[in-house]
Amino acid sequence: MRNLAVALLMGGALQASPVFADAADGTLTVAFPGEMPSLDSYTNARREGVILSRHIWDGLIYRDPDTNEYVGNLAKSWRWVDDLTLEFELREGISFHNGEKFDADDVVHTMNFVADPENAAQPRRNVDWIAGGTKIDENTVQINLKSPFPAALEYLAGPVVIYPNEYHSQVGASGMGEQPIGTGPYQVESFTQAESITLTRYEGYHQDSPKGQPTIDQLIWRTIPEQNTQYAELISGGVDWIWQVPSDQADRFAQRETYNVINETTMRIGYLGFDASDRYAETPFDDVRVRQAVAHAIDRTGMVDSLLRGASVVVNSACFPSQFGCEQDVQLYEYDPEKARALLADAGYPDGFEIDLSAYRNRDYAEAMMANLADVGIRTTLNYLKYPAMRDQIQNGEVPFVFSTWGSFSINDTSAITSHFFRGGLDDYARDPDVIAWLTEADNVTDRAVREQLYSSALKRIAEQAYWLPLFSYNANYVYSKGLNFTPTPDEIPRFFTASW
Question: Model confidence over 154-201: pLDDT tens digits?
Fold first, then answer.
């Protein structure tokens, strides 16, 4: 039956009216492709985990997705004591889902927990700037930084959420992964691994939250890896909301009056990465001319126009344009196959070469680029993996050439992307000492003008040396039942706590 429904949709001949969830029952059912083996926010680095975290937990502050301004959440005010100390005045009268009172002890516990490398909070980039927490009194706390980190507020408004000290001390990561407890607008009622999560509205959610008060009583989160199955479930009424629908399928849903289809830009960008420092082995990519040849061989504009469509644009710098410090005046690489062939010949590869290309998503995008590369003589073999396996290979130095994406964990600061990939860490395949020095200083100086100049220097060199080929920004097609009020945001975090029937 599901296969039939999908076939009818693909052919544009669906005649039967879809069955929608009864809005009166206060339930919203959503589908995501990725499995979450744990619900613990600090051990789950998947995009699904980032989204779920914002529903179960709160941070001290919150970034308004419309204005990008910081507003208080668990904290009602804050101030910089000095470059290494942030002080927060906490809201009173807030309780966790299990009734545990929220106070400074919870903040100190969370900060000290994530600051300890033995606890392996993931990803480390989100928390490795934290030295710990200090309690001033029950409602005042200080967060101590290892070194000046001007992006601290951005992280505290996003991935750094607050755990209940008593419960977390008792159950640890495993308990938090199975039955998480937070102060957020929704609490977990049940969790069946690889199948579903049922969340219910937290009746005790604090009234001053900038997230607002949720109106939907129950949120059912289903794990459905196969896109065609998601389409069938949406048609049959098994789910009310899906996202990241390919443009051709979104167009078909848009023809039906019973669905809303919205396209929104996201902070996620695609990129091609090269082993320019022999982490994998000696390869043709050791030569900047070869990397530049690849850059000229890829028809990025054609891919945006024919494959991504929507709000996507070609990206030229190794960051998302809205992020603080994302220099746009960098070397450009227009689509020019003849120039690509000339660069290859000049580098000693007149007949091209063979190389493996690793990827974990968007096989059609990868294959389009492989065709572009073949046209100039670069013959690629696709190594298509699940993301965790590809990530491990990258960090072990086992990947010569990669097509991947990065969403910056929705952090609107260049440190969340450029510094992650080019500051000498496990994902850095350039290992350029100048770039590392510029980014290190930029991530540790509080003067905004100085930061901008340092990021500019780093991004210009990354582009000149073609350590990366930034490809395009992603967009997301959201398809959902007509009766649902839902507003997508560019940070790629669906906020179901603001949705309503």
Answer: 999 999 999 999 999 999 999 999 999 999 999 999 999 999 999 999
H or E element that contains 436: helix 433-442
CA dist 440 and 434 (Å) reads: 10
Q: Coil, strand, or helix at residue 479?
A: strand
pLDDT at 440: 96
Q: Are 231 and 5 in contact (CB under 8 A)?
A: yes
Q: How confident is the model at residue 125 (pLDDT cuts 50, 70, 90)?
A: confident
Are 3 and 232 in contact by the 8 Å Cβ rule? The answer is yes
Task: Quote the tokens at residue 231.
Answer: 């389409």
> Phi/psi class of residue 145: alpha, beta or left (left: φ > 0; alpha: ψ in -120 to 50)?
beta
pLDDT of residue 300: 98
Mean pLDDT of the chain: 94
Q: How far is CA 83 from CA 20, 130, 450, in A?
A: 53, 13, 15
CA distance to 20, 45, 52, 122, 445, per residue, from 36 (Å): 26, 9, 10, 14, 36
Q: Contact 414/420 with Cβ under 8 angstroms?
A: no
The predicted pLDDT at position 394 comes to 98
N-term to C-term CA, the chain: 28
C-alpha to C-alpha distances, 417 to 323, 328, 407, nearest whole angstrom: 9, 15, 8
What does the buried/exposed string (b/e) look like for 100-116 if buried means 16 or more CB atoms within 10 Å of the residue's CB?
bebbbbbbbbbbbbbbe
Give the pairing type, strands 75-82 and 353-359. Answer: unpaired
pLDDT in tens, 412-437: 999 999 999 999 999 999 999 999 99
pLDDT value, residue 44:
86
**Rounded-to-integer distance, Cα 487 and Cα 178, Å:** 29
Residues 22-70: tens digit of each pLDDT: 566 799 999 999 998 899 999 988 889 999 999 999 999 999 998 889 9
Written as one letter, the residue type at 177 is G
Tell me if the bond preceding 123 is cis, omega within 30° of 0: yes
Percent of the chain with pLDDT over 70: 95
Burial 423-453, CB ≥16 within 10 A → b, else e: bbeebbbbbbeebbebbbbbbbbeeeeebbb
- Helix (H) or strand (E) holding 359, with range, is strand 353-359
Please provide the DSSP assignment of 207-253 as one string.
TT-TT-----SEEEEEE---HHHHHHHHHHTS-SEE----HHHHHHH
CB count, 10 Å around CB of 1?
A: 8
- Average pLDDT (249-267) is 95
**Distance between CA atoms of residues 106 and 108, nearest Å:** 6
| Secondary structure of residue 14 in the 3-state scheme | coil
Q: Are 324 and 389 in contact (CB under 8 A)?
A: no
